Amino acid sequence: MPTIKNRINLTVPRDLNLVLNRLAVRDDRSVSSKALELIERALELEEDIVLQKVAEDRDRKGVKYILHKSAWR
What we know:
With 73 residues, the protein is mainly α. It has helices spanning 14-26, 31-58, 68-71. The chain has one domain. It has three helices and no strands.
């Protein structure tokens, strides 16, 4: 039966598999749903790192500031 979600196939080291299984049991979830949750968290952290870099690049001394009204015209 087709699914609307894309499937990926991962090969993980034994120790990572053990930890993932333990976390899934602890949270009463399937291993795949726990893996998905952890991947989503990791992607959010990566996004935060990129956005932090953008903010740091923009936050410099001597730059010209634009008024809020001007920026949203």
